[in-house]
Amino acid sequence: MLSKRQELVLKLIVEEYVKTADPIGSKLLSESLNVSSATIRNEMAELEELGYLEKTHASSGRVPSDKGYHYYIEKLLADNDNYSASFNVIDELFSNKDIKRDEAIKQAMNLLSQLTNYTTIALGPNAYGSRVKKIELVPLYENISVLLLITNQGHVESKQITIPENTDVEEMKRVIEIFNDILFDCPIAKVSEKLHYEINEHRIKEILIYNSTIIETFLDAFTKFTQSKYYLSGQSKMLYQPEFNDVTRLRELLTFFEKNDIFKLVEDTTKTGITVKIGKENAISAMRDCTVITVPYGFGDSESGTIAVVGPTRMEYQKVIPLIKYLAKHMSKLYKE
Questions:
Q1: Is residue 60 very low, low, confident or very high in pLDDT (cuts 50, 70, 90)?
Q2: Residue 114 contacts by C-beta under 8 Å, 6 or more apart in sequence?
Q3: What is the C-alpha separation between 212 and 159, in angstroms, rounded?
Q4: Phi first, then psi: what are they for 145, rounded to 5°?
């Protein structure tokens, strides 16, 4: 357990380093705390020994370690009412009742990126917890139909598909009947797996002989039903952080973004509470100088998504955490209305 003065020293170092990106020396702290530089140096040395601070090679100053940031977030970060103006902007966005859900999420991510100056991600709720109730195929025009999947919770997923040429209408009806038979009450997440299994069994194998293209069309559509929607904003903002002045680090980060690997950061997050992964806690090497803060939104186990803010480890935690939590509450309301 740190002493009160050590906590104060750590808090000041974190907040000053967030502002300047420069290692913090004892002189600045001694002036702020009105104690001698020697006393501050002793406290900083002990904090370094305990793993809360790190010493840079180019300076005698210290910077927070990943452990130091976590202590700051968990023990020293107080509730902050300085961002009520930002809360009002969020309120204004969600007060528009005419805006569609997807557009609201997209605009929310853009707004969060503007307010924090970091990269923001939203993983839209998927239907993983839902079960198949009924499957329908609605013709639109020649060779184009809409595949509808109705869940046990009354949600309707739709996917426009192209019907192979010269496909017999009666054969298509038969396929839908068989799908309804074998997929009824099947979890959405298991649909693709179930179909692949059934291809080698029972009646689907029989259909496959006549038209494998039909089966592939449906498999592709069902796979897309279970894929989540992603929203990304402000990816270029990371490039202006001092941490990425190094060309090698910048190239690695750009490659990471270009491959869309950034979405993997939010796919396996917890469904309850806020999660903060700092520096080396992120398994991906391109993110070793970054922090990823995630918060779930939605309602119940069946329909929940995730919001994330990605920035340098030198992140404005006292600003970002209240904003992302407040935004998550608003986004949850989108799924209750």
A1: confident
A2: 234
A3: 19
A4: -135, 165
Sequence-separated (6 or more) residues with CB below 8 Å from residue 322: 79, 80, 83
Instruction: Judge contact between 292 and 283, C-beta under 8 A.
Output: no
Taking 3-state DSSP, the helix, strand and coil percentages for the chain, each rounded to the nearest 5, stand at 55, 20, 30
The predicted model gives 162-171 an average pLDDT of: 76
CB 326 within 8 A of CB 90: yes
22 has a pLDDT exceeding 70:
yes
Q: What value does the mean pLDDT take over residues 85-111?
A: 87
Most confident of 69-78, 85-94, 160-169, 227-236: 69-78
If DSSP codes are grouped into helix, strand and coil, which group holds residue 210? helix
Distance CA 111, CA 213 (A): 43
Domains along the sequence of the chain with CATH? 4-76 (1.10.10.10), 85-125+229-333 (3.30.450.40), 142-225 (no CATH)
Q: Which amino acid is at 303?
A: E
Q: Which residues contact 189 (CB under 8 A, 6 or more apart)?
A: 127, 128, 226
Closest to 123 measured CA to CA, from 234, 276, 231: 231
What does pLDDT average to over the chain? Answer: 82
Residue 53 CA neighbour count, 13 Å, CB half: 29
Closest CA to 21 of 320, 319, 313, 247: 313
